[in-house]
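Entry for the shared binder. Reason: the reviewer on the internal report wants the predicted structure included alongside the sequence.
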Amino acid sequence: MAKKPKKEISSAVVERLRAAYKHRSNVTGFDMGYVWKDGSKTEEVSLRIHVDRKIPVSELDTVEVFPAKFEGFTLDVVE
């Protein structure tokens, strides 16, 4: 049986994230889930923004870079 996230993220937070970033052309979806590092699931829960393709930060304008956190939760970009 899977463990529950240590810190719950409400659907209202996901909706505020959607409202803040839905206008970006590369964004395909929003959800919440565990952070994956080096192919393994961690115990950390995050807000996730799904994109068509990840673009290196060096190729983005400063205003195009997603913040590391949103409302205190880690923000993860998933391709």
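Summary line for the report: The mean pLDDT is 90.
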